[in-house]
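TOKENISED FOLD:
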Amino acid sequence: MVQGTMSNAGKSLLAAGLCRIFKQDGYRVAPFKSQNMALNSFITEEGLEMGRAQVMQAEAAGIAPSVLMNPILLKPTNDTGSQVIVNGEVQGCMSAREYFKYKKKLVPDIMKAYQTLSEQNDIIVIEGAGSPAEINLKSDDIVNMGMAKMAKAPVLLVGDIDRGGVFAQLIGTVMLLEEDERAMVKGLIINKFRGDKTILDPGVEMLEARSGIPVVGVAPYLDIQVEDEDSLTERFERKQEVGLIDIAVIRVPRISNFTDFNPLESIPGVSLRYVKHVSELGNPDLIILPGTKNTMEDLLWMRESGMEAAVLKAAAKGKMIFGICGGYQMLGETLSDPYGVEAGGTIKGMGLLPMDTVFARNKTRTRVSGRFGALTGELSSLSGAEVEGYEIHMGETVLNGEARHSLSIRDSVSGSEKEDGVYLGNICGTYVHGVFDREESAEALIRTLGNQKGIDVSQMAGVDFAAFKETQYDILAAELRKHLDMEKIYRILEEGI
């Protein structure tokens, strides 16, 4: 089990790297995280919902993602409550206090999923959440030491040196554990190190002496392009120069599934920026309104922050505006919530697409494939480009007036065919997450923007994103082999607890 001293210590990436190493060494390996809290989620081939981090780790392990790998997913709806998803199905929304009382009832679901995975694999790489030393959350813990005990899993504890205080992180965490929990920690890892390791060696010796636990590796800071788990991602804070093609993603407060845009980042000459303030917007070639866990509240944020007015002004100037899922819903004329799925009531949309959205009681969850239709005008270069992705939304959208659907898709779960999305002039939207994951669709988008800008983008080729990620997992594994004591880690596995 990989645990961390804090959120974003690098647990997800290290777990993925270990999955790839064990796979390369000939083992059947699968990832597992009993409870995930994230706004980035994924829909499996069965139409079930799970956390994105375990999808990434499954890819590293070379196996298909399954909800068995993440039986509980919490998707925050506000600062004090979350939508609770168990075995891929929505159970409803709960406040933090309600869920804290309820979570122990989910232990049988967790253990059933874990045992099923155990029967199918040689090694399970379990990821913890946050820190095991959160003393206010230790009661009835199901995701850190509580999970380690249920699985009888030896623990590797990871600290983040890039954020400072790594020795205090690791020693402090170990000191706050109960005696039986400390005994389960078999190795320490210092993560995200930059510089000359020999300078760190005296600290490593002190760490081992104080904790009585061996340091099994000092992992370097790795710039690996794989999909992030949640809004702590460093992508949001990355500063970069404006490229030949400049894309701005509006960073709404409850942004979700921002992995939609990773393929665009990998195209040379394209700058993709996450924009939180109007002053940061500049003059992009494309503005994307991303998915969100609370469309109505994030639209009100857009309105109050002045971001909506800036987007409307850009649209009036002919700039391309693209909305995905919640961002797509915002582009319409009205958003209605008769059942109180979000905030309740009805609010005015941005009015860029002639359509209305009503939030339903049931969530749409499915995988889809298809292509863009015969689009006209500014968006014609997108015509016929193949897409593959998934839908995950509560709203149902109805077109009005002169708008036309932007995509023809096939539901992979039900087998039915349908039309999706809307386009009108320089405005386009869709419910399909991953709409630009296919090399063909990403290149078509860049070609559309190049035509609009009057520049030659023929050399700005996209990439096969699935193949690109495979190379990234191999690089991750190769780097970890250099810096982790894999012989010691294998001994820890064999000896157990």
In short: The two ends are 11 Å apart (CA to CA). The mean pLDDT is 92. The chain is about 30% helix and 30% strand.
